[in-house]
Amino acid sequence: MIPFDFIYCRPDSLTEALDTYRQLEAEGKSPVYYSGGSEIITLCRAGGIRPGAVVDIKRIPDCLCLFPDDQGLNLGSACTLNQIKESKHFPLLGTVCGRIADHTNQCRITLGGNLCGSIIYRETSLPLLLSDAKMTVFGADGLRTIAFKDAFPGRMHLRPGELIVQIHVPSRALRAPSSHVKRTQNEKIDYPLVGVAAIWQDNVLKIAFSGVCAHPFRSPRMEAVLNDHGPSCAARADKAVSLLPKPAYSDVRGSAEYRVFVLRNTLEALLEDWENGQI
Ligand SMILES: Cc1cc2nc3c(=O)[nH]c(=O)nc-3n(C[C@H](O)[C@H](O)[C@H](O)COP(=O)(O)OP(=O)(O)OC[C@H]3O[C@@H](n4cnc5c(N)ncnc54)[C@H](O)[C@@H]3O)c2cc1C
């Protein structure tokens, strides 16, 4: 049960959503955009947040699209993980979506919610960091399209009142050879101790991580080491984990040392598969 009342609004357009949000904000209601609602409701129940109003974006057509065109794939921010997985348009992103939570929650959790939520893993960001994705957002300045990597240095940076409308993935990335590894503590469905997403373009490895540090990331320095075919796979994996951009994450699921150990072994296995032509 949510132990307080709040206003629920369900606009039909981006303009109506923004106007509603700003009106509620002016009235001191501390509104939040509401997509799948899984995190908002959990936090409201636990007392973590207390919004006076939610603005549900799931009836806005621009946020619900899911179609390829000659440029690539257009993904509405309110698409669920299951819709993305089932569409099969971007196999790497579909695989990542299919390994977040269980099927019931995948039918509810949305792309925008995963990217903007407070849970640190934000695993759907990994394929987007690797694919030169762009993001269209809507706010006081109207629609603007920005490089995903610039708006997402580990967590989403939006201007006050802005919402994500769509993500655009260039065609080239959609069918690139790819791999996703998610190592968890015990269960198949759990937060990642180590999540690794990789794509190969022109035989160059691009790789991004979740669970290793306190935010998802892609590291040019680590990629340079992993793409240097001179040293052995083991030596490259050792060197790469010494270059983490931030200290390794530590919590009840796994210590920092254990996460680095798991990452190192995951990288070595990935490199061996690549060298052996299995990717
Ligand atoms: C059982 C379970 C297991 C999970 N396991 C994992 C996991 O292994 N890995 C992982 O990465 N995540 C995991 N999650 C987290 C999950 O993927 C989502 O991050 C989260 O539940 C929020 O998604 P939602 O669509 O319900 O967002 P909501 O609860 O609707 O919103 C979350 C936040 O995002 C904001 N927001 C939503 N959409 C937009 C938008 N379009 N523009 C701007 N702001 C927006 C909201 O205002 C709010 O602040 C798990 C969640 C559950 C319930």
SSE layout and pairings?
Layout: E1 7-9, H1 14-26, E2 31-34, H2 38-46, E3 53-56, E4 66-68, E5 72-76, H3 81-87, H4 91-98, H5 103-106, H6 111-116, H7 125-130, E6 134-139, E7 142-147, H8 148-151, E8 163-170, H9 171-174, E9 178-183, E10 194-201, E11 204-210, E12 217-218, H10 220-226, H11 233-241, H12 256-275
Parallel strand pairs: 1-3, 2-3
Antiparallel strand pairs: 4-5, 5-8, 6-7, 6-8, 9-10, 10-11, 11-12
Helix pairs in contact: 3-4, 10-11, 11-12
The protein binds flavin-adenine dinucleotide (FAD).
Would you give an account of this structure?
- This protein has 279 residues and is α+β, with helices and mostly antiparallel strands.
- It folds into three domains: 7-58, 2-Layer Sandwich (Uridine Diphospho-n-acetylenolpyruvylglucosamine Reductase, domain 2), CATH 3.30.43; 62-174, Uridine Diphospho-n-acetylenolpyruvylglucosamine Reductase, domain 3; 178-275, CO dehydrogenase flavoprotein, C-terminal domain (Enolase-like, domain 1), CATH 3.30.390.
- Helix content is 35%, strand content 22%.
- It is built from twelve helices and twelve strands.
- It has a five-stranded antiparallel sheet. The chain has a four-stranded antiparallel sheet with strand order 9-10-11-12, with helices on both faces. A three-stranded parallel sheet has the order 1-3-2, covered by helices on one side.
- Helix 3 packs across helix 4.
- It is globular and about 60 Å long.
- The chain starts with 6 loop residues before the first strand and ends with a helix.
- It binds flavin-adenine dinucleotide.
- Flavin-adenine dinucleotide binds at residues 32-40, 57, 77, 100-101, 105, 109-110, 112-114, 116-117, 119, 121-123, 163-164, 191.
